[in-house]
Amino acid sequence: MRIPRELEKLMFFGIFLCLDAFLYVFTLLPLRVFLALFRLLTLPCYGLRDRRLLQPAQVCDILKGVILVICYFMMHYVDYSMMYHLIRGQSVIKLYIIYNMLEVADRLFSSFGQDILDALYWTATEPKERKRAHIGVIPHFFMAVLYVFLHAILIMVQATTLNVAFNSHNKSLLTIMMSNNFVEIKGSVFKKFEKNNLFQMSNSDIKERFTNYVLLLIVCLRNMEQFSWNPDHLWVLFPDVCMVIASEIAVDIVKHAFITKFNDITADVYSEYRASLAFDLVSSRQKNAYTDYSDSVARRMGFIPLPLAVLLIRVVTSSIKVQGILSYACVILFYFGLISLKVLNSIVLLGKSCQYVKEAKMEEKLFNPPPTSMPGKPSSKSQSKCKSSQGLSMEENLSASVTSQPVHQKENVIPLLVTSSSDQFLTTPDGDEKDITQENSELKHRSSKKDLLEIDRFTICGNRID
């Protein structure tokens, strides 16, 4: 009976983490792009004292902004009304199958898309003296634009299917789609779960719930536009929205309650999960952080805000017409309101995160982070074994860790696979690795807090998909 309260605490904290990363795209990212472009234009005034024209973070900001603008204009060629009537003409059972396929495709796209974006950020910011062993920035950029565009279309089809379910007369499609949530219980309750696997599933549930909230917002915007923003129609949609949210919460509670019961996991594990998410936030706010906060959330939860932001901007601009000086003044005030919400949300999250980190006694990890938390840098034990063969300087490791996607060399693959506790469920040792895994078997009974910290949060891989 403690599971619902502890789970909802974790979900509440995680949803606000996703909201913070999502609001970053609309509020601080345009300002950062403007500052980066301003530095680029005023560079002759400063002279070429630095080797870099822009800092790595500014290069990533410009790339994100350009991808957003290009995909927004590409979305104008996708007709939402035609898609709506095309989906509405299908049978109920066909739409049910389509919605299931879209959910699976969304998880696969999220997993593959973060790797594409990481590869783009790395190739754009890597040191120029390094020997390039990959394709250039331009091919990666076109791949990233294509990914964001296709993922935005996929989410649009999801929102359109949900809109058709809301507007169906007998609500049979909406009932079937809600019953689809209960299929998750059958697929996950009777499987064996370790604490790390349950942590990954909890992150996936947080991302799924936040995405559903944004989809419901898009559905309400489209319906209100069709009814000329009549407030009475909002109360017609309200029961269906509450029904979808209640079914999602009920399914998560039942699923987690029985998983913890069958696998003999206590309810206190959710406070450890929450402390681990808080540790991510606090460590990414440090001055010498190795990754941006929004990228850290994307890797941990599989939540990528760019496609969702493109779709929401497209729907809002097509639903709301801005005409006249007063309308533009309202838009500017709304933008400042979003910035205020983002800043206040960040302040509250940072304060709560510091509190959770102190309660979990993880403060020393902030100043002495575990070796696996630094991308492209092996553990100290592995480093002493491979120092003579690798010959990598500390400067090169630190320059590689500035960007969000490390390049794992062949010598570093085995130590990283061994030291990451989450990968022990995915890899099977053979040959020389057996000795290393026997040494690491003594670490099996460590506290779960330390295990959670050693989950590799700089790569997103197949274990994000339950």
TrEMBL record:
Q: Which UniProt keywords apply?
A: Chondrogenesis, Membrane, Osteogenesis, Transmembrane, Transmembrane helix
Could you say which protein family the record assigns here? Answer: Belongs to the TAPT1 family.
Where are the compositionally biased (Low complexity) regions? 374-388
Q: Which residues cross the membrane?
A: 12-42, 62-78, 137-157, 303-320, 326-351
- What topology does the record note for this protein and the membrane? Multi-pass membrane protein
Asked whether the keyword Acetylation is assigned, the reply is no
PANTHER family from the UniProt entry: TRANSMEMBRANE ANTERIOR POSTERIOR TRANSFORMATION PROTEIN 1 HOMOLOG
Pfam families tied to this protein: DUF747 (PF05346)
Q: What is its main location?
A: membrane
**Protein name as catalogued:** Transmembrane anterior posterior transformation protein 1 homolog isoform X1
Q: Does the keyword Transferase apply?
A: no
Cell compartment(s), UniProt: Membrane
Q: Where is this region: Disordered?
A: 366-388, 423-448
Give the matching InterPro entries.
Tatp1 (IPR008010)
Q: Where is the composition biased (Basic and acidic residues)?
A: 434-448
